[in-house]
């Protein structure tokens, strides 16, 4: 079993920055992919960025150049540095981890960007 806990969300003005963290605990594989997703009110959950345990990253076009995903394998923690935030980035942000054919999700953290 794996537990994921997100933190770092909050209210920020447009143009500002936030850093999200996702701490994983439990049975963590040495080979996994972690990711950030977000869900805005009335919309489907969408991919923001993913990162493998080897550091390979993928990022949605909508956040390229503004968001940076990273991880600290020794701490089993993933981060999302969000800069130049826009009102349309407002959403609940979820982290997940995929390993051994299973996907686990965190409870989500709210990010609200005021325009």
Task: Provide an overview of this structure.
With 115 residues, this protein is an all-beta fold. It is built from no helices and eleven strands. It is globular. The protein starts with a strand and ends with a strand. 28% of the residues are buried. The mean pLDDT is 96.
Principal-axes geometry comes out as: globular
| Span of the ends, CA to CA | 40 Å
SS field, number of helical segments: 0
Largest sheet: 7 strands, mixed
Low-confidence stretches: none
- Please provide the count of β strands: 11
What is the chain-wise order of helices and strands? EEEEEEEEEEE
- SS class: mainly beta
Radius of gyration: 13 Å
Strand content: over 45%
**Roughly what percent helix?**
under 10%
What is the typical, i.e. mean, pLDDT? 96
Layout of helices and strands:
Layout: E1 2-7, E2 10-13, E3 18-26, E4 33-39, E5 46-52, E6 57-59, E7 67-72, E8 77-82, E9 91-99, E10 102-105, E11 109-114
Parallel strand pairs: 2-11
Antiparallel strand pairs: 1-3, 3-8, 4-5, 4-9, 5-6, 7-8, 9-10, 9-11
Brief digest:
Helices cover 0% and strands 58% of the residues. It has strands at 2-7, 10-13, 18-26, 33-39, 46-52, 57-59, 67-72, 77-82, 91-99, 102-105, 109-114.
């Amino acid at each position: 079993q794996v537990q994921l806990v997100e933190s770092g969300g909050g209210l920020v003005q447009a143009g500002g920055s936030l850093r999200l963290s996702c701490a994983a605990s439990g049975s963590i594989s040495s080979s996994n992919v972690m990711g950030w997703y977000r869900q805005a009110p009335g919309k489907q959950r969408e991919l923001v960025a993913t990162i493998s345990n080897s550091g390979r990253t993928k990022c949605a076009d909508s956040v390229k150049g503004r968001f940076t995903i990273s991880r600290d394998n020794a701490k089993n923690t993933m981060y999302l540095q969000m800069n130049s935030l826009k009102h349309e980035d407002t959403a609940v942000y979820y982290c997940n981890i995929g390993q051994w054919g299973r996907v686990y999700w965190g409870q989500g953290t709210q990010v609200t960007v005021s325009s």
